[in-house]
Amino acid sequence: MPGLRNIEEYMDLIKDLGVEVYKDAARPAVSEVGAVAGRTVKALLAPIRGFLWCWEKIEDYVEKEVQKRLEKVPEERLKSPDPEIAVPLLQSLTYTAQNETLREMYIALLANSMDISKENVVHPSYVDIIKKMNRLDALLFEKLSKTRGYVMAINPRIAINGTNKIYTNALPEWYLGWTIDGYDEFAVSASLIRMSKFGILELMYDRTITEANYSALRQTTFLEQVLDGYKNAYPQQQLKIETTDSVVYVNEYGKQFREACR
């Protein structure tokens, strides 16, 4: 596979640009801070060393993983990756490689950028999107991407009967009725908002899916438990949950991003 040999060229290019080789990762920063603030800060920062991969480790990992992804691609479809994709991607791997979810997205993007048939879906901006993501963003986006069409969502709030007042921050701004394992409803809501700012997701407030049944979404255990908690805390008030029916969906840019990173 002639194309794969060019990864070494990109490694050399990054080095020529003055990027530090982290053979003893974070040593200057730790020493500098430690000299000022003492050994405690140095000890706290020390674990970060394990999250910074040296170029040798990245190069070895990238070559093996890209090889696996391209082994069934005909040789005539292979090409060298564009520098505007490969260089920042490999740089980002120095500090995100320990995150398996993001690491796999980077590798998929790099491999697809070396396949001529994927030229129409690969774009340099995708490197920056992955760079901004955390594990929850990646997992949530993947689940939403598998849903064809629109996804039901509501914007719930705890309101005081007979007034126009609500309790702010009592409920997540956006609520899907489900979460990602290990994360709560508020984290999922924040992730939705983040990804809408990345441009890969649309949050359509007060828009509904035709003939969709939102009633079950308004009556989940989570919402009932939060409401009960507020009723117990403020027994003198008559409280209820109000909702606005809305829609979440992965837009065309997001669909192309997913195709390029898987």
Low-confidence blocks of residues: 17-37
Structural class by helix and strand composition: alpha+beta
Across the major sheet, the strand order is 2-1-4-3
Total number of strands: 4
User: Rg to the nearest angstrom?
Assistant: 23 Å
Helix content: 40-55%
Largest sheet composition: 4 strands, antiparallel
- Estimate what percentage of residues fall within beta strands: 5-15%
How would you explain this protein's 3D organization?
The protein is of the alpha+beta class and 262 residues long. 49% of the residues lie in helices and 11% in strands. The chain has 11 helices and 4 strands, in the order H-H-H-H-H-H-H-H-E-E-H-E-H-E-H. It has a 4-stranded antiparallel β-sheet, sandwiched between helices. Strand 1 and strand 2 form a beta hairpin. Helix 5 (83-96) packs parallel to helix 7. It is elongated, with a radius of gyration of 23 Å.
Summed up:
49% of the residues lie in helices and 11% in strands.
Topology record:
Elements: H1 6-16, H2 27-37, H3 39-45, H4 55-70, H5 83-96, H6 100-113, H7 125-132, H8 135-145, E1 151-160, E2 166-167, H9 185-198, E3 201-204, H10 221-233, E4 239-250, H11 252-260
Antiparallel strand pairs: 1-2, 1-4, 3-4
Helix pairs in contact: 1-5, 2-3, 4-6, 5-6, 5-7, 6-7, 8-9
Q: Descriptors for this entry?
A:
262 residues; alpha+beta; 11 helices; 49% helix
